[in-house]
Amino acid sequence: MTTRAETKKRQGRLPLGLLRGAGGALIFALPMLMTMEMWQLGMTLDRWRLLVLLVAGFPFLLLLSREIGFESTRDWHEDVRDVTIAYGLGIVTSAAIMAVLAILGNPGSFSETAGKIAIQTFPAALGAMLARGQFGGDSEPSEKEETFGGEMLIMAAGALFLSLNVAPTEEMQLISFRMTPWHALALIPLSLAIMHAFVFAASFAGGSEISPETPWWSAFLRFTVSGYVVALLVSLASLWLLGQLDGMAFERALRVAVVLGFPAAIGAAAARLIL
């Protein structure tokens, strides 16, 4: 049962959490806020895709809040509060920055303005949610046990961060067009090797603790390969939501996903180290 003193202490930490969240939203969303393709997608993308992005993003951030949030949470009600605050910060931050940069354009065009803000809201909310892991969490030690599902969730968040930054750009399509199937096949083991070096071989702080008795291939399959599959799924979802796969042949779509999976895999591996 939460005492009055504990409640007051947690309320006192909320302003700091809001500042962290606003800073995280700005850092994570700024590259997308200043990318022309994102402005255009905000105007032209089907509104149902924007709705799917916002609606599907809520449970994802809800699960992420169980791992890292503005502060340690004790129940799902507090997680819902965290995610709602993150979405609010995402909307306010995106709207404020785009207004200052004269990106929103004609104030009378409500649909275009709403679309530009909506497409930036989830990336900014993700940044706000991850801000606690980036800028330092609670002073109290965390008692949460690390789980395989939790690590995959954090890797998905890292993959989303980098994939959303480059998925709407023309360069993704151009690179995949220039690549042969052999280039795409070579990119897969390269992505896996970099992921494995990031998380295990380089022994960076935050890497998984693997017992000496554990064979390297076991850790490689459990974490690196699983993480790469997550990165590819995130890449495909990002490309589809942003309309980048529309009218594309299956083989070409896979090639684009492998190209986008390269930065997504690096983002996934880095997230496990940072968060």
Automatic annotation (TrEMBL):
Q: Does the record carry Membrane as a key word?
A: yes
Q: Enumerate the InterPro entries for this protein.
A: CHP02587_IM, DUF2391
Extent of the signal sequence: none
One Pfam family of this chain: DUF2391
Instruction: Spell out where the chain crosses the membrane.
Output: 18-36, 48-65, 85-105, 147-164, 185-207, 219-242, 254-274
Say which domain of life the source belongs to: Bacteria
* Annotated keywords: Membrane, Transmembrane, Transmembrane helix
- Name of the featured protein: Integral membrane protein TIGR02587
